[in-house]
Amino acid sequence: MAYVSLYRKYRPQTFAEVVGQAHVTQTLAAAVTDDRLHHAYLFTGPRGTGKTSTARILAKSLNCERGPTAEPCGRCVHCTGIIHGSSVDVIEIDAASHGGVDDVRDLRERVAFAPASARMKVYIVDECHMLSTAGWNAFLKTVEEPPGHVVFVFATTEPHKVLDTILSRTQRFDFKRIGAQHLGGHVADLGAREGLTFEPGAVDLIVRAGDGSARDALSVLDQVVAFTGNDVTVRGVAEVLGTVPDELLTRAVDGIAAGDVAGLCVLVGRLADGGLDLRQFARDTVEHLRRLLLLQVAPDAGLVEATPERVASLQAQAARLGRMELLRAIELLAEAMAQMRRGNTRLPLELALVKAALPEAAGDPGALAARLDRLERRAGVRDTSAAVVPLASDRERVPQPAGDPQPAGDPQPAGDVEPPREPAAAPTGAPDRAAAPRPDFQAATAAPVDLELVRRSWEAVLEAVKARKRSLQVWLLMAQPIGLQDNTLQLEFRSGYGFHADNCAREDSQEVLGDAFAEVFGTRLRVACSVSTAGSAPAAVADDSASLDEQAAAVLESEAAAAAGQLPDEGRAHDLAIETLTRDLGAKVIDDGA
Ligand SMILES: Nc1ncnc2c1ncn2[C@@H]1O[C@H](COP(=O)(O)OP(=O)(O)OP(=O)(O)O)[C@@H](O)[C@H]1O
Ligand SMILES: [Mg+2]
Ligand SMILES: [Zn+2]
Questions:
Q1: What does the alpha-carbon distance between residue 561 and residue 553 come to, in Å, rounded to a whole number?
Q2: Count of domains in the chain?
Q3: What range defines the domain where residue 69 resides?
Q4: Is 277 in contact with 242 (CB distance < 8 Å)?
Q5: Which of 435, 465, 499 is the last residue of a domain?
């Protein structure tokens, strides 16, 4: 027997079998049972959601030998005729291929005749939006005064193209995109009947690709099975789709929002190792960002077509990014796509992501605006920082903050199938900070500044400093505030970090720090730096891994900028070079020249 695709094999045959459209099927079933049928229906909704199937079920309900019944038998001559498309009284017209007026005239003449053998004549006019205006007009007469033995079902994916006169004469049912849960259950169910097994997360991916359409979801499943056999894996699905799982896009964009350069580079590395097409990834990321932008600009306009679940998760992510940040990220990636067409794919992609994640690193006007977005966000103007999702390898270690929009048990991305190679720059400490509660900016400005407040707000200070001068923040990680008097904050550095203390005390550093304090506390403070004589680490300072991460990120940042041909801050590059020399290579500064 020839292979029958799953979506043909499993066309719903009863109202109860139609998934996720109870608002339609229950109403229709009740109408059949109570004999309250209209003579003309309009079924609207996205493709593959059950419009044609439901129209046929309705036809069976009316014509079943045991009917009219809401539960047609499926075995009598009328039911089987309808199932096989051989019933002379149930006429399907595909307006996409019969859009002209002639067919409709012909039809109008034939409508007048009584059904040949069944109880009712049912006309199912698929893709009815394709009918020409003349065609509709020819229909109108029949729809206005239909003979008692006729029921029309018009089906369309584009109701706005249907004439008002027809709209007003039909009872309309809007089929919905099938929700992820319903669709997932359906896919798993049919899969089980077919003897398939699913790796956790595989069904999710299929459902997401289906985007609310049962037909699309099932045809993806078909392809995967043809490709990988009966064991359906996440990797298999991702490969068949040739698309990037949404999880990865979400992670990438969260990485941009969090400024997690190291995480982004790890992600790209994994994609490349996993054999994923980086051009496709860039394209999909741009599309993802575009959707976020649409949701920000016009949240209620329904511009983003997706399941409600998907829209909700996109909306949550859109709230984590500023508009200028989004715009700039789209621009950078679009640029990268052009470069990727010319050859090397990995470097342009990495650079674009790094630049998008670090508006601090670039001097263009877009970067400035993105930076402002970010400052606002950190200051709690749009307080979404707690929702930042840690990237890649950190997910296992870091407790998820409450209200985290990531679905639990999300599938492993394709790249995860191979053991991840963790570069030295992998983030370890950063997500802990991202997950830590941030002090409330508004409250902080109102309260008088004392040491306690400074200590509590230290994370915010570090963030504000980082936004201005990254190396300065790196140095500050080695210090803790130990006193505050007359607007001078005493900072004690770990022993051995005299160089860091000196740098923080410098006048240009005081300037930057003053700005940062003003941002967090509404007041400029100066710092007085000392170095601890004890060997132990100051308590408030993050552990070494955090500082390493920061340093790695700072180095990456400057490398990225250098590779992009623009070193934004020569002074900082100098600082970094000196720092590397002194800390890691044991050099001594004889004359800093600063
Ligand atoms: N609600 C549903 N429940 C179960 N299966 C469905 C549903 N909707 C669609 N399907 C599956 O998709 C196939 C096509 O469905 P159907 O032809 O009814 O969709 P449609 O809404 O008419 O799509 P189109 O707009 O493309 O004509 C069915 O054979 C079935 O396998
Ligand atoms: Mg159809
Ligand atoms: Zn029957």
A1: 12
A2: 4
A3: 6-174
A4: yes
A5: 435
158 and 192 both lie in a single domain:
no
Q: Is the CB of 18 under 6 A from ligand 1?
A: yes
Return the ligand 1 atom nearest residue 175 CA: 21
The response to whether residue 7 sits with its C-beta less than 6 Å from ligand 1 reads: yes
* Ligand 1 atom with least separation from CA of 157: 25
Segment 461-484 mean pLDDT: 86
Q: Which of 246-250, 271-275, 558-562 has the lowest mean pLDDT?
A: 558-562
The answer on 429 and 310 residing in a single domain is yes
The protein residue whose alpha carbon is closest to atom 7 in ligand 1 is 50
Closest ligand to C-alpha of residue 76 is: 3
- The ligand 1 atom nearest the CA atom of 54: 18
Among 190, 209, 241, residue at a domain's last position: 241
Determine if ligand 1 sits within 6 Å of the CB of residue 210.
Answer: no
Q: What ligand 1 atom has the least distance to the C-alpha of 186?
A: 4
Pocket test for ligand 1, best of 26, 51, 53 (most atoms within 8 A of CB): 53
DSSP-based three-state secondary structure for 446: helix
Same domain, 250 and 352: yes
Which residues are close to ligand 2, an ion, with C-beta < 5 A?
Answer: 51-52, 126
Q: What is the pLDDT of residues 347-367, one digit of tens each?
A: 999 999 999 998 766 656 667
Nearest-angstrom CA–CA distance, 176 and 191: 23
Lowest-confidence region among 377-391, 453-467, 520-534: 377-391
Indicate the residue type of 309: E
pLDDT digits (tens, 9 = 90+) for 402-453: 433 333 333 334 333 333 333 334 333 333 333 333 333 333 333 478 888 8
Work out the pLDDT band at 76, boundaries 50, 70, 90. Answer: very high
Q: Which residue has the tokens 């997500």?
A: 431
What does the pLDDT read at residue 204?
86
d(CA 234, CA 276): 13
Q: Which residue has the tokens 């930076």?
A: 371
> Does residue 1 lie in a domain region?
no
Q: Is the CB of 12 under 6 A from ligand 1?
A: yes
- pLDDT given for residue 364 in this prediction: 64
Gap between the Cα atoms of 530 and 528, Å rounded: 7
